[in-house]
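Journal club side-thread
Mid-discussion, someone asked how the predicted structure for our own chain would compare to the paper's figures. Pasting it here so we can look after the session.
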Amino acid sequence: MTVKKIAILTSGGDAPGMNACIRAVTLAAASDNIEVIGFRHGYNGLLKSEWVPLTTQTVHNLLQRGGTLLHSARCEKFKHPEQIRLAAQVLENHELDGLVVVGGNGSFMGALALQEVWDKPVVGIPGTIDNDVAGTDYTVGYHTAIQTAVESLDKVRDTADAFERIFVVDVMGREAGFIALNSAIGAGADHVLLPETFSTAEDELAKILDKLEKRRNNKANASHIIVITENLWPGGLNDLATSLQSKTGVDVRILSLGHVQRGGSPDWHDRVLATKLGTYAVQLIREDKKGVMSGIQHRYPAAIPLDPSKVERKALNDYSLLIQNKITLIH
């Protein structure tokens, strides 16, 4: 397939490394004499034909920058068939030979819908801190988000030890516990609450109290760090903190890391991953691969159908769960 011109957009929640994806696509295309444009503000910009040229000069010194040069957004309009057809017409008007979409599951659903009405390749790059896209080992931004959470948890531990307090630390992840589980392991947290394993508030509270009691019996240090995925506890974190404080008599503090996990410079892992996947995405377009994402499997780039990302829920690593449970039993 002869490819002369392609486009890229970033969609949904931003993630560290999105700029690295833009850079990789632009440089890989330039090496094959392919023109690149970028649609700003995700699918909204595509519908409005809001675009900018991307050149080797445009992406100079972009690798380490957080955020996204093209900006990002969610687009409710893209759920309607007439808007998707309009987007396909915009792509035709620009005489494009392919489109790269950097985003998560919601963005890929839009990419699939667009692929159904446009006969040129639409290729996804998984860019989300949640790491919840099925089919790929990792998503761009995930490792940086964990690093941010671990650094924050390390600092929380210092102040928790000083006052022998309980800290409840809320991390992002939506309906997936990847960030919570691995940041808890990386920071040596004492308890972790995950969407995949959560039963009821009553049962989970009993587990926390049981672990606290075991630590007291073993005369372990009195601070206790609980990591929890956002929006998980029924009634909110204040309810959890109030219950813990009333039953233990220990001061309980809440820390919500929030959007700080999406910001900042991507770490080396996300820079390398974004560069691999962006370069491979251009190759997939040149090979006329349609409705796939440029993902990573066993350290190597792979063309992965977008459909599983729409219908499957990515599972946590069972061994990671085992590790977390074992190392916090007596600690």
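Post-session note: The first helix runs from residue 18 to 31.
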